[in-house]
Target: MOS1T transposase
Amino acid sequence: MSKFVPNKVYLRGILLHYFIQKKSAAEAHRILVQTYGDNALSDTTCRDWFRRFKNNDFELEDKERSGAPKKFQDKELEQLLDEDPSQTLSELGKILQVDESTVSKRLKGLGMIQKQGHWVPYELKPRDVERRFGTCQLLLQRQKRKGFLLEQLLDEDPSQTLSELGKILQVDESTVSKRLKGLGMIQKQGHWVPYELKPRDVERRFGTCELLLQRQLEQLLDEDPSQTLSELGKILQVDESTVSKRLKGLGMIQKQGHWVPYELKPRDVERRFGTCELLLQRQKRKGFLHRIVTGDEKWIHYPWLEASSLYLVGSAECNLL
Model:
């Protein structure tokens, strides 16, 4: 028994039948392969004929070809890409009956580029922009929602382990670890801390360092107020300009090689006041003229009272009081 071999026109008629039944080109091609095997039309050919049927071209016979290359409209190429953006230059050229270089030029003219085997517009269309924008918004909302909950847990107790955080968030430890890395958190001494400090943490640490430096500087000056800027800088491991600024901040000035407060502290005021009182009391006790001698209406300070009871100044004789 001879085997029936369908010709192209016969198969095209079957395609027209499936087109009228509103089947897709892929479904029609699959049925032809199941029925006629190797004699079936290719998938590309089926798509080409379905495209003709959509354009109200129901002529099943081949049209006469002229020697000149076929010209096609950009709409035809766009329609093919809308149906299947993964088609190669060779496949598009066969359908449009032109060479690959012509298809490539037309694709460049349409602003199409190939990414991951698909032809996509170099500049997104408005609908694609909206679609991507919506996707980004959803991702940001999910990111904020998850990140906020994790940050809140760490604010409450930064010493929680990956296992404990995973149980609360109902995810595995690897997911928690990735989220922590995404937030820029690292573990130090059993606590989760930001790898890059927040502004408030920077201010807090800066204030702490300033306070420690101030205390160390005050302690050094109490031990030895005659130390130079260079010596203080070496001890504190900072440069001289930093020491100078800190001393000015403390209100310290240098007098006779000693660092003293420009404005006396309460304890220094009390100390000086006490010293003045002692001097006044001693002065009152010994008398104001205790160390003063007179002679020829001149006042002379003479500290060695016990040396002699008689002393000459010039040619005048002075009596000791």
Notes: The domain at 200-256 is CATH 1.10.10 (Arc Repressor Mutant, subunit A).
